[in-house]
Amino acid sequence: MEFQLWRNATVLVSIDNIKFLVDPMLGEKSSFGAFPYTEDPRANPLVDLPFSGKALRKQLQELDAVVVTHLHPDHWDAAAVQLLDKKLPIICPEIIAKTIVAYGFTKVIPVASSIHFKGIEIVLTEGKHGTGAIEEKMGVVNGFVCSSKNESIYFAGDTIWCDAVKSSIGTYQPRYVVVAGGAATFAIGEPVTMSVEHLNSLAATFPEITIIITHLEAVSPCTEDREFIRKEMAKNGLSDRCLIPKDGAHYSFH
């Protein structure tokens, strides 16, 4: 399995040579403005993609499918709508399928529970994008477990540590778990993505998994950066089990 973080939650993953782009945020730096429910006026994204132009177009042309967990602009932006081939399969939760179809995509594959795509099983999972009032404003979010005969990776999506994540890992037993870190926090309530405390709980509950921490330093609500998380993971003896990729970083998992 090949894994490359592009930026934020945008990941290129190859499973049995089938290439999926997860949660494409493809716009230039500052392309979609400030987030609501925050006093931070900075335009997002805060950083550019690690490549653009011909290199980006080449990568997009080689995709087998796109996987979208939800429609917040840091996971599905106007540039993704513009740049992705409208005939490219888009795999997404059933709840957002009609919206993606309305953008002109002709091969939208809604997932109610699970599907098989070119030999890869893709299972829909649930999450909690915060608690209380901020969770209501964030709306429904999902994740996906992608598995072949020999490989399995769980994209938890924009969720805090919760029973749904615990249940998904216990049920599907993925070797790699990709989580949204950064403790993204708005003017209302508690973090809506995983904090270091959540990451510690995840690691303690499932000592057999490798955790890949994404969603860092690319959007303004995030309050914990890579260096802070790296130090905290080292303090708890988790450096070998927690990967904190830089934008553009590539990993081969065997």
What does it look like?
By secondary structure, this protein is of the alpha/beta class. It has a single domain, classed as Metallo-beta-lactamase, Chain A (4-Layer Sandwich), CATH 3.60.15. It has 7 helices and 14 strands. It has helices spanning 53-61, 78-83, 97-102, 132-138, 163-172, 196-205, 226-235, and strands at residues 2-7, 10-15, 18-22, 65-67, 90-93, 108-111, 114-117, 120-126, 142-147, 152-155, 176-180, 210-214, 242-243, 250-252. The strands form 2 sheets. Strands 6-5-4-3-2-1-14 form a 7-stranded mixed β-sheet. Strands 7-8-9-10-11-12-13 form a 7-stranded mixed β-sheet, covered by helices on one side.
Question: What is the distance, rounded to the nearest whole angstrom, between the alpha carbons of the first and last residues?
Answer: 6 Å
From the 3D coordinates, which CATH architecture would you assign?
4-Layer Sandwich
Reported by name, the CATH topology is Metallo-beta-lactamase, Chain A
Shape: globular
How much helicity do the residues have? 10-25%
- Average pLDDT, rounded to a whole number, is 97
- Which CATH C-level class is it? Alpha Beta
Which class do the helix and strand fractions yield?
alpha/beta
The biggest sheet, with number of strands, parallel, antiparallel or mixed sense and barrel status, is:
7 strands, mixed
List SSEs in N-to-C order: EEEHEHEHEEEHEEHEHEHEE
Provide the β-strand percentage band.
25-35%
Keywords: Hydrolase
GO molecular function, one term: hydrolase activity
Pfam families: Lactamase_B_2
Domain Metallo-beta-lactamase: 7-215
